[in-house]
Write a structure and sequence with these properties.
The chain has about 70 residues and is mainly α. The chain is built from 3 helices and no strands. The longest helix has 17 residues.
Amino acid sequence: MNDLTPMLYERTPETPDHFLWEKEKSWVAPLFIPTIKAYAQSLHDYPPVQKGAEIGVTALVKMLEVKPADK
């Protein structure tokens, strides 16, 4: 495989030169860690107040269920 061939498979420790690839790509992690920490802290400081959307088959079935009329 030459250098112009794109890597179309997932890298695992079983592939040749995995640790070299990991070392070459690991420089980017420290750039994102402060941003991710700030985001996680903001979720702790200001927890979400809106309930998550229930989208799925179960939610649709619940919406379509016929409820008995109040007597």
